[in-house]
Amino acid sequence: MRKHRTHSMAFKRQVVEEHLAGETFYGLARRHDLSRTLIRLWLEKYEVGAFDEEAEAADTLREYEARIATLERLVGKQAAELEFLKGALRHGRRPRNAPMSVITGPKASPSPKDAG
Q1: pTM for the full predicted model
Q2: 80 pLDDT more than 90
Q3: Which of 61, 72, 75, 95 sits at 20 to 30 Å (Cα–Cα) from 36?
């Protein structure tokens, strides 16, 4: 099964204008690997002004907003992972070759209250 494709306003306008210039639905559908029904739908939308500059700008804006939302989610996930790893470093196990006394155990790590 074919994956759902999306096309830009510029591409849709180009296909419709090719049809208006004399190209057949069949020829366009075959050349661009589209259905004739889809091209007819685009033609109807073009005729009512759905492919004008404002519609294209709104389409571009929606694409940018979706991309920004995706990137913000990624940054949030990475920030959470970073905080987790920082905590693991602070409270993790000491390496085997760390200095240690048989009598007192491992050397105490400085705590923030001792740092003053």
Answers
A1: 0.47
A2: yes
A3: 61
